[in-house]
Amino acid sequence: MEHIAKTRDRTPTPPPDTYYDAEAEVRTRGTGFYAFSKDGAAREEEMEELMKARKETLGERDAATKKKSAREKAKEERRRKIEELRSKRRAEEFLNGLGDLGGIGYDAGKGEG
């Protein structure tokens, strides 16, 4: 029993609050890495600033997406209108190209048969 007591884990339960220590890491960190303070109050403030910046970024991204979709919609409307005008012009050219049909009874000026 004494042997078990000696080998028992003596760390406090529950363990104290510890934060990630970026300087203790050997690995390379990426572009988005943010080294928060080890002080709890400063850490909370940094996290709030980061979340505020994130919300701002998401808002700007959403506004840009809406603006882009409005531009695309206007562009598509212009394309549709241009195609409509082209098809009208082609139809007129086709009808004018037919010319006189040899007295069938159609008068292109009146539009009746």
From TrEMBL:
Residues 1-20, 55-79 are annotated as: Disordered. It comes from the Eukaryota. InterPro entries: CCDC174-like. Pfam families: DUF4078 (PF13300). Keywords: Coiled coil. Residues 1-11 have a biased composition (Basic and acidic residues). GO terms for cellular component: nucleus. This is Uncharacterized protein.
